[in-house]
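It would be a great kindness if you could assist me with a short task in structural biology. The full record is reproduced below for your convenience:
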Amino acid sequence: MKGRSPLAALLLIFSPFWAGALNISSDWYSQTVDYLAELYGVDENAGLTSFRSLYVPMGGRAEAMGTAFSSVADDPSFIEWNPAGSATMKRSELSFYHNNWIASTKVEGAVYTKRFGDMGIALGGKWLYVDFTEYDQYGDRASKGYYSETIAVANLSYNFFRGYYFDGISLGANAKMGFRAVPDYSNDAGYVDPSSGDSQSAFAVMLDAGLLTRFNILKFYHAKERNAAFSAVLRNVGPAPLGDPLPTVATMGVSYHPIRPIVMSFDYSFPLNLVDPTLSEAQYWATGLSVAVTPFIDMQGGLMVRGSNPRISIGSKLLVAGIDLNVNYTLDLTTSLQPLNRVSLSARFNFGDDGRAVKAARVEELYLTGLDEYANGNTEEAARLWTAALKLDPGFDPARESLAAIDRSLQLVRRMDEIQKLE
């Protein structure tokens, strides 16, 4: 990277972006692209992998944060960026996505996720499609159809070692299937070959694996939730369809809440060509910001830089009657040099937390009542209450520690009685 860090590009892009309130000019953008081309150079290995739709986000908050979402992973978008996210989801949710991508390319997606204690599951998929029309030498339409790529995903994750003081380490995996459908096209003689599309269509199987852990660091506010997270993800590992490698990517990410309404995130990614590692694409990075303006309005912004291509996004989330609506705008060199040239929409439906919040409140109540009983000398009643709290939540460490304290005090009393008997 010629001795320069991503911070220079980050400052260059975000300063006029926020200060200008989206008044981005084509001249400014082209100058930024030229600067990044000098900073990072041209990636000669770009575009050598198949099923490129795996790089295209469905939309939602993850896209608005520049896809720097592997360590955030707190809504159904996790299924694209970190499969470990389902084990820590607070609610069961169903999400729908629509993304206007390049030119007439569209992406439709849906995800359903549910949690059972420390285990999370999800099912999802997306469909990328674009009109395909071929004209012959006379200008007549020779072939028409859709080029499409369909990805289906089944997710499973589990949160290990969860307790009161530690949120645990969530490990997850996605099993994915992809199908690429290519319409028939003309041969060298100018006639549509009825088998040409089938020869280029392909089926792919692949796996994702992810790790996610949350913790407290430099926390300047009081809340039970942790204010920082770390993630490690390996995506799209599988055999090469028709000999073309899949877009395998390894990502490491961090996120941080300096104060409760603000989330900052950063992902660094390492593309891997599993057919020929020497042809792997250049590393790239993304950063994102989310700000809760009110309890029902969030604003997000993001930046992803791959080579000389900066992708800048901004989005907003509105909570209406339990439905999260997200609208994103993205400026991308792969389309045109006009600002706000792409839009994506998403809707998330909240199906509740299966009583987890009520149970957590009950556990807290049992514990606090036990403290009162213990302070009043009612040790047996305190032990009963704390045992009931642990039965509801085995990971509630304060109740376990309090029971251990009672046990130690009883042992001390028994020891004192033994000493008195010996005397």
Remarks:
- Residues 61 and 326 are 7 Å apart (CA to CA).
- Residues 1-23, 335-340 have pLDDT under 50 and may be disordered.
- The helical segments are 6-19, 26-40, 60-64, 78-81, 196-200, 356-375, 379-392, 397-422.
- The two ends are 80 Å apart (CA to CA).
